[in-house]
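Quick one, probably user error.
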């Protein structure tokens, strides 16, 4: 690969920039519905795709960030004298250099007090990365160590941990008759641990000073315009003095939110007048970015003797960590979906997101929805056991459908084929029993005794919301240009691996019949497209691309139609050919475009939503997506080891836009869900992260991935969504952990009320029998 200099930066192939036009050679079809491969797939799989850590610039300096060693302490003073005196050190910055007002409640560099282990305190720029690290370590910070408050249940009575108080948000949802009770009541307490997004590549960035006193930042962000505005506020600059270039994003699941990483880069670049680069270590990555909210959930399910739900009561306590970040949004999802995809005539749900001195929590696939899914599905299993019914049957008697209300009072107007999804996984044949010992729990070298292995089958249903909620203005803008039979898409939607760049190509191919489509690099000179989470780019950014492409189509067809005295709507574009309804006109798109340059810009904005009111009521969500999973596990009930044998999933996808890409997304989501269920847990003791590395934080490998059977992709189009498609990546992540827990419950008869599932939770005392399971 040859270096391509851009503004003095080399090896910058930014996210969305595609060099391979059109679909794979020999592909039978183009456009929507075809399995068009990503243009950057070969570069990524062969290891030559340039990510942010590969950037370089003339006169480059290196940055290092000093992070707090305590989860809570007062900063009595910071002495940078020794650090600044080291040979090769060019600048040291602290909170005193932050001239503007940071948005939100989190300072980019700690001021007056540190509130979590790893909080950024100061940063250094030097001519060598080791010099920068040594200088950061030489900064003397005088801490008065305070007792951290790390138990979310204790923050209600503790002193304020933040000027804004300890309660980020409280939502008291009341629906129907709160006093209604059922004949059968089952109770449970559930806990979901702290999961790290664990991207394949750690954070990295490069900041370059501008002559006007501003700065340009090259980084793998998922929200370039949001980062620009936050940086400008902190630097006391106008937004147009800060420019973000989105470079290769090495994995993201709604995260990449650490402003305490990008701001020091910008400060140091402006201070030194030189480009400054920082490539975080894996430990810094673990300490810097937000994690999934650890959550405690207490539930009471009321039902009649037929198993029909009468009321759901729940108390949800989410640990936001030291700062609010996305906790208010996560809590809204958790409270709204606390009863799951079931008809519930009455609900009493209280949810709290609270500050502690634990690491911050934030966006991570299915935030809020995953935690409550694990709990309400555990309750459905308890209800089935109490009534002596098959767990799948209890679910089938309660599933919601289109038109049913959520406990927030919002009617589910989108397709909600929950019954069909459950039926699909329920009717799928079960896998055969193991025929070789090496496939038992523990793997080829495991110690499992075949006589101690029990098989369990578990079901789970779940839901996620798409786009933002509670009044968020979801809007995206895109421009489509066509010149010389080559189309270019300009849209600030960041492709983090979810496939937006490929989708944009398919849309233009479908609408215009142009095979060669390029997606331009993303920067903040383009109009905003919003952050890349909750499937929003498929909806709003894809919708904007489609509208712009259709406007260009009209420009292309109007002159031809006028020549023949007909409307452009009577012309069709198929396989690169333009034909009229009567066959009189027939030409190629290439011929019609010869010598022309056409372009159009369009926006897409979905219907508005509203905040939840004081009783947790309101039309807060744009759309919903559903999934059903059946998990089959083998459990060594003496050792507590679990092997997932098979995951069968049926998913509500609206419309399949790219079959291969969709299946890959679902399989990846199921795998991430298995990690949540069995192994992923960032250990924090009294606020201090223990072993923030991949030696201690376990992730699923190829050996942990079972047979993932996608038994049905239900295409019932959402009429208000562009193309009718729904978000695909989050639902499998949300539902899979609950299904694995249900299967372990079935195999062991144990309550299994904690994620990840600990070995002791799957150990069965001698003579104990598992609960009945169909």
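Nope, works fine. Designed sequence:
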């Amino acid at each position: 690969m040859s270096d391509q200099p851009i503004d003095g930066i080399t090896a910058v192939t930014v996210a969305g920039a595609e060099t391979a036009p059109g679909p794979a050679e020999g592909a039978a079809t183009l456009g929507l519905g075809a399995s068009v491969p990503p243009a950057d797939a070969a570069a990524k799989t062969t290891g030559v795709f340039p990510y942010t850590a590969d950037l370089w610039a003339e006169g480059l300096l290196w940055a290092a960030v000093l992070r707090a060693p305590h989860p809570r302490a007062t900063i009595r003073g910071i002495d940078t004298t020794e650090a600044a005196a080291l040979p090769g050190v060019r600048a040291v910055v602290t909170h005193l250099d932050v001239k503007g007002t940071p948005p939100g409640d989190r300072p980019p560099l700690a001021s007056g007090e540190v509130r979590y282990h790893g909080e950024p305190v100061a940063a250094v720029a030097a001519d060598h990365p080791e010099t920068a690290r040594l200088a950061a370590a030489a900064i003397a910070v005088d801490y008065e160590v305070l007792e951290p408050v790390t138990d979310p249940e204790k923050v209600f009575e503790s002193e304020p941990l933040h000027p804004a108080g300890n309660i980020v948000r409280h939502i008291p949802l009341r629906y129907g008759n709160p006093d209604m009770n059922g004949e059968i009541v089952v109770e449970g307490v559930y806990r979901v641990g702290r999961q790290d997004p664990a991207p394949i590549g750690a954070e990295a960035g490069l900041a370059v000073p501008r002559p006007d006193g501003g700065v340009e930042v090259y980084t793998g962000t998922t929200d370039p315009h949001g980062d620009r505005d936050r940086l400008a506020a902190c630097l006391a600059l106008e937004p147009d003095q800060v420019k973000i270039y989105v470079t290769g994003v090495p994995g993201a699941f709604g995260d990449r939110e650490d402003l305490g990483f990008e701001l020091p880069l910008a400060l140091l670049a402006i201070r030194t007048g030189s480009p400054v680069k920082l490539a975080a270590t894996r430990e810094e990555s673990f300490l810097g970015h937000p994690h999934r909210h650890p959550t405690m959930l207490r539930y009471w399910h009321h039902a009649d003797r037929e198993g029909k739900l009468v009321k759901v009561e729940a108390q949800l306590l989410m640990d936001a960590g030291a700062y609010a970040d996305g906790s208010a949004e996560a809590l809204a999802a958790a409270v709204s979906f606390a009863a799951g995809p079931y008809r519930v005539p009455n609900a009493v749900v209280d949810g709290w997101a609270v500050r502690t001195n634990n690491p911050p929590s934030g966006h991570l696939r299915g935030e809020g929805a995953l935690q409550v899914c694990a709990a309400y599905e555990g309750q459905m299993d308890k209800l089935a056991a109490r009534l002596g019914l098959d767990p799948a049957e209890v679910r089938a008697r309660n599933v919601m459908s289109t038109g049913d209300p959520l406990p927030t009072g919002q009617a589910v107007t989108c397709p909600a084929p929950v019954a069909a999804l459950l039926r699909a996984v329920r009717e799928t044949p079960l896998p055969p029993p193991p025929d070789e010992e090496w496939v038992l729990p523990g793997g080829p070298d495991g110690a499992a005794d075949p006589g101690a292995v029990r098989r369990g089958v578990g079901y789970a249903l779940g839901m996620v919301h798409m786009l933002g909620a509670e009044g968020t203005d979801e809007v995206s803008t895109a421009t489509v240009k066509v010149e010389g039979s080559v189309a270019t898409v300009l849209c600030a939607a960041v492709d983090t691996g979810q496939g937006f760049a490929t989708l944009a190509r398919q849309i233009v191919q479908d609408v215009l019949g142009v095979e060669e489509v390029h997606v331009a690099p993303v920067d903040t000179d383009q109009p905003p497209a919003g952050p890349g989470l909750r499937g929003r780019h498929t909806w709003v950014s894809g919708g904007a691309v489609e509208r712009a492409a259709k406007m260009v189509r009209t420009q292309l067809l109007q002159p031809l139609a006028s020549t023949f005295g007909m409307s452009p709507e009577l012309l069709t574009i198929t396989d690169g050919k333009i034909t009229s309804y009567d066959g009189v006109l027939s030409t190629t798109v290439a011929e019609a475009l010869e010598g022309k340059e056409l372009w159009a810009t369009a926006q897409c904005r979905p219907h508005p939503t509203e905040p939840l009111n004081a009783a947790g009521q309101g039309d807060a969500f744009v759309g919903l997506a559903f999934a059903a999973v059946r998990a089959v596990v083998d459990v060594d009930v003496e050792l507590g080891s679990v092997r997932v044998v098979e995951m069968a999933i049926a998913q509500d996808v609206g419309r399949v836009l790219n079959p291969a890409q969709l299946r890959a997304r679902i399989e990846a989501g199921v795998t991430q869900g298995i990690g949540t269920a069995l192994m992923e847990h960032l250990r924090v003791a009294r606020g201090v992260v223990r072993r923030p590395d991949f030696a201690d934080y376990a992730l699923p490998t190829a050996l942990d991935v079972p047979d993932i059977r996608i038994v049905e992709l239900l295409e019932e189009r959402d009429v208000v969504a562009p193309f009718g498609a729904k978000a695909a990546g989050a639902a499998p992540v949300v539902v899979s952990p609950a299904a694995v827990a249900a299967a372990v419950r079935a195999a062991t008869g144990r309550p299994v009320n904690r994620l990840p599932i600990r070995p002791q939770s799957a150990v069965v005392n001698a003579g104990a029998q598992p609960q009945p399971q169909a």
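Residues 1-28 have pLDDT under 50 and may be disordered.
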